[in-house]
Amino acid sequence: MSIISKDISKAVQLLSSDQVVAIPTETVYGLAGNIYSNKAINLIFKTKKRPFFNPLIVHIQSAEALSDIVSHIPEKAKQLANAFWPGSMTLVLKKQSNIPDIITAGKDTVAVRVPNHPTTLELLKQLPFPIAAPSANPFGSISPTKPEHVERYFKENISQVLDGGPCKKGIESTIIGFENDEPIIYRLGALAVEDIEGVVGKVSIKNKKEVSPDAPGMLERHYAPSTRTFLTDNVSEEIKKHEGKRIGILSFKSKLDDLNIASQIILSPKGDLTEAAARLYGAMHDLDRESLDVIIAERFPDSGLGKSINDRLQRATYSS
Ligand code: TXA
Ligand code: MG
């Protein structure tokens, strides 16, 4: 029997009894538990096989609840929350003392966001506690953007995937930390850097080498298909290096005519980065199930969501 269901009251009941439930968000599906339940939070780590040094994101119902979770809100954090919540932005701020250490991996900061999905906002409204939710995938593998992806990963381990349809944004939230009250991007994501800068002015992007393993979302290899994946500016040239192999192509807008290609997914024939981001992980899941020897991904233009897509493609590769 399928574990996918739209029953919000069932999710409320499971979460209220220390269980974990997969929940829809506009970015990716999350594996959720009550932030104050040690049992539920341990279950999240166990189910995902996630190392305990990797902290979780707390999901709250509205920006008003932020002061229950964090002890200091810089002016620019207020401006960002007003501009983008509910939405695909996570803020890392100094935590309140009642936030359990297991959520923050013992750090004095906590990651928080208000997700923009009607089902999960309704769920949060009905729950008397916030929920912690990392992406609902085994550690290191591709994040789920459809309920079926979660079911495939965790059918044996969880009782419910709360069905909210396919995720509209399709890649994880953009994570923003603060140093001396100034924002700094820890993880590129579904909210473009340009949009953030439109509200708070120029922001810097933390070098991934500096962040790791503080924000393991920044780990070099992450979000990865099990098929060997290459990222290139020139797909035709890369194909020549894999003669005789079953090759899958993941490209932005143009179709390639090459007899060596076994399978090809074009993320947005009309060249729309938002559409490409929304389809990215679904395409990686699909190609990964086609018994290919290699996946060759085309590098995206380095602006707007193209920057975030390139970040994820880079982490999906073996060679850099
Ligand atoms: O879109 C999203 O953010 C999704 C949905 C479910 O909300 N969640 C998600 O969670 O991507 P997860 O656990 O896969 O990624 C959370 C990232 C990790 O890289 C973690 O290291 C970082 O957030 N993080 C959490 N707390 C942090 C903190 N206090 N300081 C720095 N990084 C933190
Ligand atoms: Mg993740």
From TrEMBL:
<feature type="binding site">
    <location>
        <position position="59"/>
    </location>
    <ligand>
        <name>ATP</name>
    </ligand>
</feature>
<feature type="binding site">
    <location>
        <position position="50"/>
    </location>
    <ligand>
        <name>ATP</name>
    </ligand>
</feature>
<comment type="function">
    <text>Required for the formation of a threonylcarbamoyl group on adenosine at position 37 (t(6)A37) in tRNAs that read codons beginning with adenine.</text>
</comment>
<feature type="domain" description="YrdC-like">
    <location>
        <begin position="5"/>
        <end position="191"/>
    </location>
</feature>
<dbReference type="InterPro" id="IPR005145">
    <property type="entry name" value="Sua5_C"/>
</dbReference>
<dbReference type="GO" id="GO:0005524">
    <property type="term" value="F:ATP binding"/>
</dbReference>
<feature type="binding site">
    <location>
        <position position="143"/>
    </location>
    <ligand>
        <name>ATP</name>
    </ligand>
</feature>
<protein>
    <recommendedName>
        <fullName>Threonylcarbamoyl-AMP synthase</fullName>
        <ecNumber>2.7.7.87</ecNumber>
    </recommendedName>
</protein>
<keyword id="KW-0963">Cytoplasm</keyword>
<keyword id="KW-0548">Nucleotidyltransferase</keyword>
<dbReference type="GO" id="GO:0000049">
    <property type="term" value="F:tRNA binding"/>
</dbReference>
<dbReference type="InterPro" id="IPR010923">
    <property type="entry name" value="T(6)A37_SUA5"/>
</dbReference>
<feature type="binding site">
    <location>
        <position position="27"/>
    </location>
    <ligand>
        <name>L-threonine</name>
    </ligand>
</feature>
<keyword id="KW-0819">tRNA processing</keyword>
<dbReference type="GO" id="GO:0003725">
    <property type="term" value="F:double-stranded RNA binding"/>
</dbReference>
<dbReference type="InterPro" id="IPR006070">
    <property type="entry name" value="Sua5-like_dom"/>
</dbReference>
<feature type="binding site">
    <location>
        <position position="113"/>
    </location>
    <ligand>
        <name>L-threonine</name>
    </ligand>
</feature>
<feature type="binding site">
    <location>
        <position position="173"/>
    </location>
    <ligand>
        <name>L-threonine</name>
    </ligand>
</feature>
<dbReference type="GO" id="GO:0006450">
    <property type="term" value="P:regulation of translational fidelity"/>
</dbReference>
<feature type="binding site">
    <location>
        <position position="54"/>
    </location>
    <ligand>
        <name>ATP</name>
    </ligand>
</feature>
<dbReference type="InterPro" id="IPR038385">
    <property type="entry name" value="Sua5/YwlC_C"/>
</dbReference>
<feature type="binding site">
    <location>
        <position position="223"/>
    </location>
    <ligand>
        <name>ATP</name>
    </ligand>
</feature>
<dbReference type="Pfam" id="PF03481">
    <property type="entry name" value="Sua5_C"/>
</dbReference>
<dbReference type="InterPro" id="IPR017945">
    <property type="entry name" value="DHBP_synth_RibB-like_a/b_dom"/>
</dbReference>
<feature type="binding site">
    <location>
        <position position="187"/>
    </location>
    <ligand>
        <name>ATP</name>
    </ligand>
</feature>
<feature type="binding site">
    <location>
        <position position="133"/>
    </location>
    <ligand>
        <name>L-threonine</name>
    </ligand>
</feature>
<dbReference type="InterPro" id="IPR050156">
    <property type="entry name" value="TC-AMP_synthase_SUA5"/>
</dbReference>
<comment type="similarity">
    <text>Belongs to the SUA5 family.</text>
</comment>
<dbReference type="Pfam" id="PF01300">
    <property type="entry name" value="Sua5_yciO_yrdC"/>
</dbReference>
<keyword id="KW-0067">ATP-binding</keyword>
<dbReference type="GO" id="GO:0005737">
    <property type="term" value="C:cytoplasm"/>
</dbReference>
<keyword id="KW-0808">Transferase</keyword>
<feature type="binding site">
    <location>
        <position position="135"/>
    </location>
    <ligand>
        <name>ATP</name>
    </ligand>
</feature>
<dbReference type="GO" id="GO:0061710">
    <property type="term" value="F:L-threonylcarbamoyladenylate synthase"/>
</dbReference>
<feature type="binding site">
    <location>
        <position position="109"/>
    </location>
    <ligand>
        <name>ATP</name>
    </ligand>
</feature>
<keyword id="KW-0547">Nucleotide-binding</keyword>
<dbReference type="GO" id="GO:0008033">
    <property type="term" value="P:tRNA processing"/>
</dbReference>
